[in-house]
């Protein structure tokens, strides 16, 4: 298997899960500029990471890749404990992170620059920070008494870890969210997480 990633992007979640599988894989670093070039656009016309390649088959979209890895390596348990309810919980929190939280960061990454008005752009960023604070507060409540979002390690956890890294880098108020901080430190101490971070030059 081959993972195309950009350092610190949401593809870090897939990178971590690949480490958790214990199976051989190749990680291919792709810069933001390279993602706009014909060579990479031939791999993913959207010009985005992650992309997972296996035996010539290309898979895009983070949620799809994470679920594929869960099915490909069921022994990891990252897709749940084998029951439909456990799998649904893993996907419930993956959807929360992928569909609700991730898009909420967009104004902080320049999506409202088209407004051309500094005050309006800053207002959009402030609104994004406020919304994200609320989402992290929900996650904090979910993490009460748990090391993982669902109670055991799933594909939702590395993605949430990535977004927590983004939050810390973008002045999201995480004060008082002790469960989120405990989760973050717990993840950061994981050997697979440390290896993925080191490989991406993020340590």
Give the number of DSSP strands: 4
Arithmetic mean of pLDDT: 96
- In CATH terms, what is the fold-level topology of the largest domain? Glutathione S-transferase Yfyf (Class Pi), Chain A, domain 2
Helix and strand pattern: EHEHEEHHHHHH
Global Rg: 17 Å
Please state roughly what percent of the residues sit in beta strands, choosing from under 5%, 5-15%, 15-25%, 25-35%, 35-45% or over 45%: 5-15%
Q: Quickly give the structural class.
A: alpha+beta
Overall outline: globular
The strand order across the widest sheet is: 2-1-3-4
What share of residues is helical? 40-55%
Total count of domains: 2
CATH class of the largest domain: Mainly Alpha
Largest sheet: 4 strands, mixed
What tags apply to this protein structure?
alpha+beta; globular; Glutathione S-transferase Yfyf (Class Pi), Chain A, domain 2; single chain; Glutaredoxin; 4-stranded mixed sheet
Write structural notes for this entry.
This protein has 203 residues and is of the alpha+beta class. The protein has two domains: 2-76 and 194-199, Glutaredoxin (3-Layer(aba) Sandwich); 84-190, Up-down Bundle (Glutathione S-transferase Yfyf (Class Pi), Chain A, domain 2), CATH 1.20.1050.10. Helix content is 52%, strand content 8%. It is built from eight helices and four strands, in the order βαβαββαααααα. The chain has a four-stranded mixed sheet, with helices on one face. β1, α1 and β2 form a beta-alpha-beta unit. The radius of gyration is 17 Å and the shape is globular. The protein starts with a strand and ends with a helix. Pfam families: GST_C, GST_N_3. This is Glutathione S-transferase N-terminal domain-containing protein.
């Amino acid at each position: 298997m081959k993972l195309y990633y950009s350092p610190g992007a949401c593809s870090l979640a897939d990178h971590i899960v690949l480490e958790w599988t214990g199976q051989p894989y190749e990680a291919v670093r792709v810069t933001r500029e390279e993602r706009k070039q014909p060579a990479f656009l031939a791999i993913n016309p959207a010009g985005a990471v992650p992309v997972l390649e296996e035996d010539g088959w290309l898979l895009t979209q983070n949620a799809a890749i994470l679920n594929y890895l869960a099915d490909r390596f069921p022994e990891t348990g990252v897709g749940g404990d084998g029951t439909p309810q456990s799998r649904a919980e893993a996907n419930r929190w993956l959807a929360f992170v992928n569909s609700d939280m991730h898009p909420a960061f967009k104004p902080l990454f320049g999506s409202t620059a088209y407004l051309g008005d500094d005050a309006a752009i800053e207002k959009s960023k402030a609104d994004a920070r406020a919304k994200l604070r609320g989402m992290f507060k929900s996650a904090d409540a979910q993490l009460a008494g748990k090391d993982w979002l669902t109670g055991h390690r799933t594909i939702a956890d590395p993605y949430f870890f990535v977004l927590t890294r983004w939050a810390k880098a973008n002045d999201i108020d995480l004060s008082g969210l002790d469960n989120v901080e405990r989760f973050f430190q717990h993840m950061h101490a994981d050997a697979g997480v440390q290896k993925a971070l080191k490989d991406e030059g993020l340590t």
